[in-house]
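Workshop exercise sheet. Pairs work together: one partner reads the sequence aloud, the other fills in the structure field after running the prediction. Swap roles for the next sheet.
Pair: D.N. / O.F.
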Amino acid sequence: MLLIKNAKIYTMADKIIEKGDILLEGKKILSIGHELEVDPQVEILDAEGLIALPGFVDCHSHIGGMNFSQPNLSSDSNEMTNSTTPQVEAIYGTDTNSPDFKYAYKAGITTLGITPGSGNVVCGLVFATKTYGKNIFEMTIKNPVALKTALGWNPKGVYSERNQEPYTRMSMPGIMKDLFREAKEYMEKKEAAEKNNGDMPEYDKKLEAVIPVLKKEIPLKMHCTQFDMLTAIEIAREFDLNFTLDHAWGATEYMEEIVESGCGVVFGPIGSRKGYGELRLIDIEAVVELDKRGVLTAITTDSPLVSIDSLIHHVGEAVREGLDVERGLRMITINPAKIMGVDNRIGSIEEGKDADIVLFKGLPAYNTNAKVVHTIIDGKIVYSSN
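Structure field:
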């Protein structure tokens, strides 16, 4: 057992506790309160003057599968052999020996949503994992948490160079819709066979991977920016799918459509170059407006495109644009946990949830010199700065 004493606790469950205690037992949070009484042998961590937050979450990451610092290494997160590869799973391309995992937990990031790259129109399955450990299967919280798709320059850039479809944006929606229609027909045949004891259709691993999306068990994670967001919304509406818009640069121009769609938004990275068309329109102010309009919003670094340990600085930039600090912290805790469907375990400091806690000196996203003092994952102190 571990008792954290005297911390200012930002629970991310609509409550801030001054000089509070958190008792951890095993991998779970046992109780939260003031002056908690424990046996003398319980380890005590005095957090006087420190701020306790739930471990940070980045729900759109490629670490362990991509390494931009050594571009000669091939990516294990981009299966660019076919425009639709829904059956591939990011978990099998993730190497926990990547130093990015250590950079993550040293920065207070305890959970990642690791996703395939966006070289294909339908890219593969996303999973949620803790950032500390050696065995990715033991570290995993849930697999899958989403099916990744992509619109715009990334798949277009890959396949147009090969003179293959999708050569232009025009063909991408059709590719995606054809797959969803085929998967729906396959699913209905399976259901009819089960109901009537009929012959099952021949097993198809690609279509099997799409069925959880059609059943709304997991969402589509749709890589898109600027006007591609309208295409993403139209596709999801046609098939009545749950979805998120990931990156979402230029969301300011399509605010009404985004709000009406009821989707979530994973915005970022914020620290990218600005541009137009095939470049980027980094409208940081969109994060503030999305939150005001009730859109479930998270912030991402898209690591290792941008360093994973910069996540809190991205929130700080949104705060500088007018975002409330606590609302900003929700975008890297409870909001991405909800987006991945793992908020029953992570994202807030509540009894029964995973004991993933980060202790800061200073309030991150507000104090520019805020510093991680301890990172705790599954009840274990995995990093201390002193």
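Discussion prompt: The chain is about 25% helix and 25% strand. What would you look at next?
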